[in-house]
Specification:
mainly alpha, 2 helices
């Protein structure tokens, strides 16, 4: 088995983890922003 410290030292894995965190944060922010925009403009789909 691979030790956790070996995974954390891998540059490729750390780059993937940081970019994945950025993308997931953006997705959550955009969904909240879209919900706020639709609620304030009353443009929810029917």
């Amino acid at each position: 088995m691979v030790d956790l410290t070996q995974i954390m030292d891998d540059e490729v894995f750390m780059a993937f983890a940081s970019y994945a965190t950025i993308i997931l944060s953006k997705m959550m922010l955009m969904s909240a922003t879209t919900g706020f925009y639709r609620m304030t403009r009353k443009s929810a789909p029917e």
